Amino acid sequence: MNKLWGGRFQKETNQLVEEFTASITFDQQLAMEDIEGSLAHVEMLGACGILDTEDVQKIQTGLKTIKQRIERHEVEFLIEHEDIHMNIEKLLLDEIGTVGGKLHTARSRNDQVATDMHLYLRNQTKSLIHLLENVQEAILSQAKKNVGTVLPGYTHLQRAQPVSFAHHLLAYFWMFERDKERLKDSLKRINWLPLGAGALAGTTYPTNPDLVREQLGFERVYPNSMDAVSDRDFIVEFLANASLIMVHISRLSEELVIWSSQEFQFIELDDSFCTGSSIMPQKKNPDVPELLRGKTGRVFGNLIGLLTVLKGLPLAYNKDLQEDKEGMFDTVKTLQGSLRLLAPLLDTMSVNKEQMRRAVAQDYSNATDLADYLAEKGLAFREAHAIIGKIVYYAIQKGKFLNELPLEDYRSFSPLFAEDLYRILEPEHVVGARKNYGATAPERVLEQIQLAQQCLNQQ
Ligand code: ARG
Questions:
Q1: Catalytic residue, candidates 73, 156, 278, 350
Q2: Is 230 part of the annotated catalytic residue set?
Q3: Which atom of ligand 1 lies nearest, measured to the CA of 317?
Q4: Which domains does the chain have, with CATH numbers?
Q5: d(CA 263, CA 175)
Q6: How far, CA to CA in Å, does 188 sit from each of 93, 144, 329, 371?
Q7: What is the pLDDT of residues 220-251, one digit of tens each?
Q8: Can you give the pTM of this predicted structure?
Q9: Would the pLDDT of 281 be above 90?
């Protein structure tokens, strides 16, 4: 019986069981983290006098050799050794002989795998924060070029009030800023160390988990060994954060798809980021934002998948927990790929300022300002609203926009109207009049850009 745990068994494992229970096909992604954790563990075993210095050195040298061989792709992982932990242990035994068998003193695969996952997610979380920043940079640089670009702002996808295009884009900057905050906050919990918990109950050896904690840069050791080996909250949290990031990516993508349509023509995506049709020669399709939108589904799926795995699991470790990995790897990969594309997609898009301006000139999105105009002259806003509503209806009947109606017409609705009303109706005036904190007036948008820049500089 060549299994590391084979002693108790009288029969070989059924081939189907071996294939079904193995995780090596995907958890080999944790190889580096696994070795990092083992190096710290064996260092601690030495420091606590559990292993002698010579053995510690042999094991550490062996682990480092294996690490190099993996990096050079010289190692073949085998299904018969089930997972990354036992594959590496087997490689170590082959490398340094029976002393390699001392590595697993005072630990279990249960605290080992949890530690690997914590290390992995810490690395990935940091790299995702960086990728989010790149997207924010791209948004900010487009915003800087478009403070004075006016386009219709929508509610219910109906023209509402004109806004600065920079203002519209910056809304996404702040979504991604909150996403970054969430990821940073999650590091607090990712930085709990499970190693030392053993299988579930702790260990009989005089270990010092604090040494491992320090070496691996964790903030604290799990205060409860059963929680340590069963906890996957930090992965759920990551998947939830990832889902929300995908929501933001997806909403922005949807806008890019709409804006680049023939009907809108507000932006044009760069040729190098679009694809064509196999039948319709004229087509230039926004496949990238469409796929970004579509990828959201699998990320949500991975979150629901893990929540479902965890629900109803008794303490402590259960093999079900092995199902935490593929969804997490898939989410990391999807998110990385999405963010890597989104930044240059935004950077290279061209903004059709004239078309946006034309759109604003051909709607009634300045109507609120006309109501404000009457209110300023003393009418209750509600009454002003009613009068302008009637004027809008009248204008639509006449096939005219608000700036095309003569003053006599206005005065027939209210004597408060005067020549200065036409200035109010200009889209730039409408945008510029919204000067409160966080509003779309150019000076406020410039302030916002400064604030956003500060956020990025602080990183
Ligand atoms: N491959 C396993 C996992 O991913 C490692 C832990 C196995 N522990 C055990 N007692 N079978 O969860």
A1: 156
A2: no
A3: 10
A4: 13-105 (1.10.275.10), 110-147+162-205+218-353 (1.20.200.10), 359-457 (1.10.40.30)
A5: 27
A6: 36, 34, 21, 51
A7: 999 999 999 999 999 999 999 999 999 999 99
A8: 0.95
A9: no
Tell me whether residue 156 is one of the annotated catalytic residues. Answer: yes
Q: What is the DSSP string of 196-263?
A: T-TTTT--SS---HHHHHHHHT-SEE-S-HHHHHH--HHHHHHHHHHHHHHHHHHHHHHHHHHHTSTT
Report CA(124)–ligand 1 centroid distance (Å).
21
User: Which is nearest to 173 in space by CA: 12, 4, 398, 346?
Assistant: 346
**In whole angstroms, what is the distance from residue 101 CA to residue 386 CA?**
84
What local confidence, expressed as pLDDT, does residue 280 receive?
Answer: 85
Using the predicted structure, report yes or no on whether residue 283 has a pLDDT greater than 90.
no
Which tens digits make up the pLDDT trace of 96-139? 999 999 999 999 999 999 999 999 999 999 999 999 999 999 99
The bridge status of strand 192-193 relative to strand 220-221 is parallel
Ligand 1 interacting residues, C-beta cut-off 6 A: 23, 27, 83, 85, 109-110, 113, 317, 319, 321-322
Place of tokens 């005072």: 106
Is residue 316 reached through a cis peptide bond, with omega within 30 degrees of 0 on the bond before it? yes
Any idea of the CA torsion for 160, 166, 171, 177, to the nearest 10 degrees? 180
